[in-house]
């Protein structure tokens, strides 16, 4: 028998004042899995989460948890009866309650049972010594961990988290993110995490649901979304991209880097060949002799450095091509050629994505 999704959202739709904000959204989260709802500001992520939590009602579509209908048709199970834990961006702790009372807030059971569970969770989040402390005496990161403990305390089957780490500084965030993930995995909780940061999604997610303009444009494992983006915008959401434009002739597109196979496009079709900056290769110009073309790299093209910066783990080099188009390369460690220097560059053929011009989704 196949396992039921812990959370199954089908064709969820919600409009405000005639504007569709959540448009036919479907996603699933299996037990113990982390799904990240990733997308730019205003694309409808929080609204989707609110519909799942039950604090808002969908116009159409269904929300199911372990197969049971929570919202859809005339059914609307109230939020407290859905077995979900919620951490919203402002995670508001109760200021007048101590840390332990905050964590105990949603708990049922005897006083001893509650005390044991609160202690267990505060141990897990590394705050056991703060039981009697009040929220204003804690740092932002510590408050965040109390909020996590509070949300986990009633053993929710599903944890809904809306940008839960956004208030934290970078260093603190990495640690808390990893700790949180470890705790959630240990508890076997299914997690739907909303974020607008691709790096956070890649770090946390088993599956990413990429959202844009109210719709899910692509779903998949981080590796697949990064390496096989659905369209140019999906590619650009994860890193800077280079775009090389061309026109198809006989299923081939001619560029400064040689011919590209572009099957499935009609003669005269405009295409965009997209490549991430880390997939450009660089060679020294020497006496102006181009390196030999290879199947991996195609043809090498001369390019002039316009700017080079070192940013910590890598260097970013901007190039101007002979046709005045520009390209960006990232190179590990320190590589700072002087502006005006000419180099040979090539692009990794297996790392290129071809899309129809105009930024719309792939051929088909
Ligand atoms: N109750 C509401 N009434 C009217 N419009 C709303 C309501 N809630 C959300 N919206 C609109 O829906 C759109 C999506 O909002 P939502 O909060 O879901 O975006 P988001 O993806 O979470 O963005 P962010 O990353 O900035 O938090 C926004 O344009 C917002 O103004
Ligand atoms: Mg939001």
TrEMBL record:
> Is Membrane tagged as a keyword?
yes
Signal sequence range: none
Q: Which domain of life is it from?
A: Bacteria
One GO cellular component term, please give it: ATP-binding cassette (ABC) transporter complex
Provide the ABC transporter domain boundaries: 7-238
The UniProt keywords, alphabetically, are:
ATP-binding, Cell membrane, Ion transport, Iron, Iron transport, Membrane, Nucleotide-binding, Transport
| Gene Ontology molecular function | ABC-type ferric iron transporter activity; ATP binding; ATP hydrolysis activity
Q: Does the keyword Membrane feature in the UniProt annotation?
A: yes
Q: Which InterPro entries match?
A: AAA+_ATPase, ABC_SmlMolc_Importer, ABC_transporter-like_ATP-bd, ABC_transporter-like_CS, ABC_transpr_FbpC, Mo/tungstate-bd_C_term_dom, P-loop_NTPase, Transp-assoc_OB_typ2
Q: Indicate what this protein is called per its UniProt record.
A: ATP-binding cassette domain-containing protein
Task: Provide the species name.
Answer: Maritimibacter harenae
